């Protein structure tokens, strides 16, 4: 049996390799059979919704359904054939997934669908040509009709795999995600490394302070930051994190993830735009972190289909140059951080990063110190970080 942590690591590494890249979108042709409702709810979710109930990820659902092994094998063959039919066509279209990755995703789907202790046996039977045990009943966490629908959406509509299974593996977390919530990226994991290496180790007092994760989405950065504060505080009282987001869907999902990890006492989720929900703590923040929208508006139509056609535009579009929200965050950090407070923001990389560094030097002179960029896994200058200037 493969350990669950190993499965999570393998899934994370594959998603890191595949990436979510820019390109040209074209819709894949739709073959017939199996009615499936439109899945593109991510673009139509209203930000004015009063209350949103987060969806339960597939791996957390109880095995309330069943199908015969014969029926499951039929679905599995169909799903593999559909994945294989893609070949490298998505790669040529917009650097999307190829058949190899899609078939691997199919295995991940099965791992979430089946009870963990049954994975090896069922997976072996599905790959076998034997007709033995075909009448055996297999416990599932979703009905076959939903599986046909979900996999058709994955291939034909390029619905992100993370939305199909309802979760994303990120650092050592498994986070709930759904339409209307940005899928946290592997490169964003580095913000937590930066917080630990640059902020908490060099300025230990920040461990006990109040932090903010702005535009929290799934709550990934807020949850990981809170865990880092607890780890570095040792036996002493640790700090807290306030996570803000304008989207009610994100607020609901982030709250769900916070509860899943038992961090209600350390992470508070507030609805609102950027610093707006934090007016009561102006000038008191020990740290501000964010992965804001930074893609130039004109680049949105050319994004990989999984991104541009499904993920929330609110979390992607950074205005004409992509720096609208980043500039707002830098301006806000100058007044919201206490002296010696730390900030780290993710950018679109290189030129955008250089632009922000120049802005801080020329337009925010005297507000910050030790400002510098940090590169991501691919050597691209991705992050801008620094400290609020101390009072003289």
Automatic annotation (TrEMBL):
It comes from the Eukaryota. InterPro entries: DNA_methylase_N6_adenine_CS, HemK-like, RF_glutamine_MTase_cyano, SAM-dependent_MTases_sf, Small_mtfrase_dom. The keyword Repeat does not apply. PROSITE patterns: N6_MTASE. Pfam families: MTS. Keywords: Methyltransferase, S-adenosyl-L-methionine, Transferase. Residues 192-294 form the Methyltransferase small domain. One of its GO terms (biological process) is methylation. GO terms for molecular function: nucleic acid binding; protein methyltransferase activity; S-adenosylmethionine-dependent methyltransferase activity. NCBIfam families: hemK_fam. This is Release factor glutamine methyltransferase. It comes from Theobroma cacao (Cacao). The lineage of its organism: Eukaryota, Viridiplantae, Streptophyta, Embryophyta, Tracheophyta. The gene is LOC18606953.
